[in-house]
Amino acid sequence: MTKNFIEELRWRGMLHDAMPGTEEYLLEQMRSAYVGFDPTADSLHIGNLVPIMLLAHYQRAGHKPFALVGGATGMIGDPSGKSAERNLLDEKTLRHNQEAIKAQLSRFLDFESDASNAAVLVNNYDWMKEFSFLDFIRDVGKHITVNYMMAKDSVKNRISSESSEGMSFTEFTYQLVQGYDFLHLYRDHDCTLQMGGSDQWGNITTGTELIRRIAGGKGYALTCPLITKSDGSKFGKSEGGNVWLDANRTSPYKFYQYWLNTSDEDAEKYIKIFTFLNKEEIESLIVEHKEAPHMRILQKRLADEVTVIVHSQEDLDNAIKASNILFGKSTSADLKDLDEATFLDVFDGVPQAEISGSMIDNGLDIIGALAEHTGFLKSNGEARRALKENSISVNKEKVTEGFSISSKDLINNQFVLLQRGKKNYFVIRVV
């Protein structure tokens, strides 16, 4: 029994546009739909989460999702929303990226079960690689007029007088290749709906047009809004660039922090889009949040949910523990639990100094560690005063003037965390 997928998208704020009749069509029986993903990297990023959630809700509503990895289109580059061409990849890299992307998608979609609506991964390179140029322009190109292609926003914006780049023929043909994907999936897999971001509407409707003209059938189109942030900055970017789903590219700690730092306005929108929480649960969280905004209830729940889905419960627990080190009450034992990457993420931007291992082996007196050898404090006198005021901690534990740092104090065999007062941190790195 299928649930009302469109209704689900509507209350979540995930519906931008749908072809007339789509809602009724999906309520009749199980249908197949696809979303395309760009395989130019071996990881998706959080900008891809909305189309991933579209497929996940689609499967949960009882329908069959297809994830299309654009191996062929990745070799060309999609002009939608881009002002320049992208780099082209070789087949080996594309295959590696495809496997990595499938592993990430399988945290949201069921590819493995025997259910009739199990998800399927396809790569358009598999049906495009044998297609000769002459065959393509004869069998596909003749059905779509240049006037039709020129009318699309993705084309108009690139060849307008404002665009200095212009547009290559390769990119101009992109919508035909994407349109052909839809036709191919329609014929071979009875796939009758394509979904994507609102900037994909032109490419998707080229596919429905090909299905109508070549196969005499009917295809449907559905798009979701492009996600924005209330302050106007780009969603999915941090100071270091993209926020990736791969833990090696963006650590679970940084991933968790990205969601935790969402504004109230955005958190209310994002918790509907990026979690599977139901309507009642979300509405009560919103009410609770508004009664005590300083508790950041929405942000915490959003960060928890997304981190567990993309990474794991263990990664979430570690990210929370790491977050508490800066802002909460934590101990030297908590610090020593951090792996090197997370430690460096937590103390990113904190001043550092390097000292040699032999100094630690012989025991480094605290005054030298605070002033002469690191420059954390300006002078030995200042160091003594701070120690008398009981404001100095080593690895989160208060120390006095007689203390010396030894190898047992090292975090990950290489770091020592100095702290003056609540907020002044300094990292010694032993080399």
TrEMBL record:
A Pfam family of this chain: SYY_C-terminal
GO molecular function, one term: ATP binding
UniProt keyword Cytoplasm present: yes
Subcellular localization(s) per the UniProt record: Cytoplasm
NCBIfam families tied to this protein: tyrS
Family, similarity comment: Belongs to the class-I aminoacyl-tRNA synthetase family. TyrS type 1 subfamily.
Function: Catalyzes the attachment of tyrosine to tRNA(Tyr) in a two-step reaction: tyrosine is first activated by ATP to form Tyr-AMP and then transferred to the acceptor end of tRNA(Tyr).
Name recorded for this polypeptide: Tyrosine--tRNA ligase
Originating species: Aquimarina mytili
